[in-house]
Amino acid sequence: MATPTAIVAGNWKMNGVQASIEELKSLQKLLEIKPKACCDILICPPFTLLTGFAAVSGEMIAIGAQDCHTATSGAHTGDISAGMIADAGAGYVIVGHSERRSNHGETSDLVASKATAAQSADLKAIICVGESEAERDAGKTLSVVLDQLTNSIPETATAQNTVIAYEPVWAIGTGRTPTPQDVADVHAAIRASLQDRFGKDGAGVPILYGGSVKPSNALELMAVENVDGALVGGASLKATDFDGIIDAYRK
Ligand code: 13P
Question: Whose CA is nearest to atom 2 of ligand 1?
């Protein structure tokens, strides 16, 4: 299995209204005039913008959602199924983001069921893992991350339908990042675990880093071994900032 194609993904979280499509169009313009980047580019807006974004995103930008339900349809007020996300024109869905794990009590078992639902709907599941600051301080980073990884990835995972995002909780929205060596250690452990469990497919699953990625630190973080791209929050909301991160994948 060849090295995974890198992905620079924007997670817009609970930000954006219909008018924000202008930001997507600005990003498209930047991608058109600047040298082609050797990565896939993905924007994950809120559910309300999926259809509109997918309608204009074109060949250069993929669209994803930020969560899905485990069921295909039924009496689940307020929830959205993976099939509905695919029907809206998206190709990806983030599952198990730390904000969902902490705000909604999502367990790794639930995350695995959501990933299965996503894969059954032909979506790529971006499965998020990451330790809290207390866990890092207690020296538990690898055990926490690997436990989440093992229990959040379903047996159906392949290099084609699965992406992993390592997002240390304490680095999200704080401006703080782990050192490149810390990132390298965690990504190497994730890669080893994926290969142990999925063999060659495990070598092909992209592993993204997320947590305070911005134009000024993207090159350094993206150069770390086994870092196959970024999952970007705040800096994905402005086309120029997001494009500045994509620069890490331009010659
Ligand atoms: P920030 O880039 O804002 O730190 O957010 C990271 C994140 O949670 C992406 O999913």
Answer: 233
